Amino acid sequence: MCASVTNIPQENLTIPEMKGLRSHKCLVAIVTLDSSSLYFTPKGGVLMKQLVTRMSRLLRIRHDRVKNPSLDRVYLANQYLSGSGLEIGALHHPLPVHATVRVRYVDRMGEAELRRHYPELQEQHFVPIDIVDNGETLSLVNDASQDFVIANHFLEHCEDPISTLGTFFRVLRPGGIVYLAIPEKTSTFDRDRPVTPLEHFWEDHRSGPQHSRWAHYREWAELVDKRCDDLETHALRLLNKNYSIHFHVWDQSSWLLFLHSMQQTFGFHIEVMLRHGVEIINVLRKVESQTKETV
Ligand SMILES: [Zn+2]
């Protein structure tokens, strides 16, 4: 489904593979609701997917890069991340950043222990762990010491996401960036779960997450793992293993409500909120003269 049709200024085609397109003077982009794809066609001409393929061959561009040229993690990282900062829980899938950007990788365990914990990732190359620390509290990281914090597909694993976001803004310098991707439930294995109400996050924050822990594991066992016969036993097994489930679930609407509440609490600017594939990518900037609230 087409959401909008717009002219793309040639200077905005910054992905290296797309530079060849600059020689084409009149291009129109169609931004689709389902995948944020861009299709290019001569201005005023008939939209033809075949044309994309032909141009790809002509310009020796991979077809998938033509379909998803810019509005993605890498483009946004290049636009917003500079200086030095942290990425939390990157494992084998770190966010690509510009060569001048320095990233230190944080995880709750060293690499050997992580490999034991994730045997299914045996063949993957892990990023080197620079700081062994709990990404939710970052107790080894000083206040206002980082230019950015990257946490992709991390917040849904946190039992108290409000405290976690408070931690991120604590360690950021004024003007620093939180780069955060979360799964959008309708595109993931969370699709059968109800979205988490905003009040629930605040109750987890005020009362401590233990009051809702069992309910989360039980819901996971029932609606993600689809256990019927041994629902309670399976949920208890996961809980005793401290298995890292998605404790909370957002769709686009509930994420907007959550983000608005967090903005009122921590006072950041929302630079980007982009639905992209199965996830929502967010770029949040700590205000320059932030008066940190105690929450
Ligand atoms: Zn909860």
The gist of it:
With 295 residues, the chain is of the alpha/beta class. The protein is 31% helix and 22% strand.
What is the CATH C level class of the largest domain, in words? Alpha Beta
Number of strands: 10
CATH architecture of the largest domain: 3-Layer(aba) Sandwich
Count of DSSP-assigned helices = 9
Which segments are poorly predicted (pLDDT under 50) over 5 or more consecutive residues?
Answer: 1-69
Briefly note the structural class of the backbone. alpha/beta
Percent range of helical residues? 25-40%
Mind summarizing the main beta sheet? 7 strands, mixed
CATH homologous superfamily caption of the largest domain: Vaccinia Virus protein VP39
CATH topology of the largest domain: Rossmann fold
Features:
Rossmann fold; three-stranded antiparallel sheet; alpha/beta; single chain; globular; 31% helix; binds zinc ion
Characterise this structure:
This protein has 295 residues and is α/β, with parallel strands linked by helices. The chain has 2 domains: 2-67, no CATH class; 83-186 and 248-286, 3-Layer(aba) Sandwich (Rossmann fold), CATH 3.40.50. 31% of the residues lie in helices and 22% in strands. The protein has 9 helices and 10 strands. It has helices at 49-59, 63-67, 73-80, 111-117, 161-171, 198-207, 210-223, 231-240, 252-266, and strands spanning 2-7, 27-32, 40-42, 84-88, 102-107, 131-132, 146-152, 172-183, 268-276, 279-286. The strands form 2 sheets. Strands 6-5-4-7-8-10-9 form a 7-stranded mixed beta sheet, with helices on both faces. The protein has a 3-stranded antiparallel beta sheet with strand order 1-2-3, with no helix packed on it. Strand 2 (27-32) and strand 3 form a beta hairpin. The chain is globular. The model is unreliable at 1-69 (pLDDT under 50). The structure holds zinc ion. Zinc ion binds at residues 200, 204, 209, 212, 216, 247-248.
